[in-house]
């Protein structure tokens, strides 16, 4: 894919966000994109290819916002962009932008998405890639549930350090819990306070912190929380208050 970009635009500046997403995990890719794209300079083109539907009837799209452009499959990957509003989406139908000869049925990242991103980086107007569309595919982010002064959440991502990132945002927590005493429970473990960082406790101690994504994280100083708790994505937690 990098070769395909540089062949069209040798001056392109390519920055890798992640190559560590689980194969075909659209939700994980969407979360990482959501956490990453606002930190790039205006005008950045984000080429995103987590594409289990490659070769099927799923559409190839460009999503343009006032600050950024996104290129990839129409499979829900760009849901965080749609949620912010102020965007337009186009189906990529201009075959003159594709790799020639005919694109592979199994590697649209190389043969369609990368060339289109490269042409856009050279100043091609987004309107030239195809026609505008409205019926976009979205993924559903698991939302925490509240009942009888209890929040039920789950682990939605585990980073390479083994930190457990939940679907409970700081804004949601503060709105529901406020200044009430609380207990966070996952498995047999319970926590009754929040820490500033994983370095706040001694090595091996389980802590709850607000991570850089703005979500509640379960972390262990210098140890993997995933291993300590034998947890996986989808693991349930509760917050009583």
What can you see in these coordinates?
- With 241 residues, this protein is an alpha+beta fold.
- It is 21% helix and 26% strand.
- The chain has two domains: 2-133, Rossmann fold (3-Layer(aba) Sandwich); 145-240, Bacterial fluorinating enzyme like (Elongation Factor Tu (Ef-tu), domain 3).
- The chain has helices at residues 2-8, 26-36, 79-84, 108-121, 170-176, 225-229; strands spanning 45-47, 60-64, 69-73, 88-92, 130-133, 145-147, 150-158, 164-169, 183-186, 189-191, 206-210, 215-220, 236-240.
- The strands form two sheets. Strands 6, 7, 8, 9, 10, 11, 12 and 13 form an eight-stranded antiparallel β-sheet that branches.
- A hairpin with a 4-residue loop joins strand 11 (206-210) and strand 12 (215-220).
- It is elongated and about 60 Å long.
- The chain starts with a helix and ends with a strand.
- The mean pLDDT is 96.
Q: Nearest-angstrom radius of gyration?
A: 21 Å
Structural class: alpha+beta
Unreliable sequence segments? none
Main pleated-sheet profile: 8 strands, antiparallel
Helix content: 10-25%
Please give a quick description of this structure.
By secondary structure, the chain is α+β, with helices and mostly antiparallel strands. Helix content is 21%, strand content 26%. It has helices spanning 2-8, 26-36, 79-84, 108-121, 170-176, 225-229; strands at 45-47, 60-64, 69-73, 88-92, 130-133, 145-147, 150-158, 164-169, 183-186, 189-191, 206-210, 215-220, 236-240.
């Amino acid at each position: 894919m990098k070769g395909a970009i540089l062949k069209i635009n040798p001056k392109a500046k390519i920055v890798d966000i992640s190559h560590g997403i689980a194969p075909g995990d659209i939700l994980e890719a969407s979360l990482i994109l959501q956490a990453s794209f606002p930190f790039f300079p205006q005008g950045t083109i984000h080429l995103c290819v987590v594409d289990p539907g490659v070769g099927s009837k799923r559409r190839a799209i460009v999503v343009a916002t006032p600050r950024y452009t996104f290129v990839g499959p129409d499979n829900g990957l760009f849901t965080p962009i749609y949620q912010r509003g102020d965007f337009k989406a186009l189906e990529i139908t201009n075959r003159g932008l594709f790799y020639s000869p005919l694109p592979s049925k199994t590697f649209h990242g190389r043969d369609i998405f990368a060339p289109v991103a490269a042409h856009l980086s050279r100043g091609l107007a987004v309107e030239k890639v195809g026609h505008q569309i409205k019926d976009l595919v979205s993924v559903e982010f698991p939302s925490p549930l509240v009942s009888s002064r209890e929040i039920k959440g789950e682990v939605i991502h585990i980073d390479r350090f083994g930190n457990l990132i939940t679907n409970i945002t700081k804004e949601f927590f503060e709105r529901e819990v406020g200044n009430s005493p609380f207990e966070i429970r996952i498995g047999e473990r319970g926590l009754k306070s929040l820490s500033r960082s994983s370095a706040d406790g001694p090595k091996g101690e389980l802590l709850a912190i607000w991570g850089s994504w703005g979500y509640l994280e379960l972390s262990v100083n210098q140890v993997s929380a995933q291993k300590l708790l034998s947890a996986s994505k989808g693991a349930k937690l509760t917050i009583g208050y």
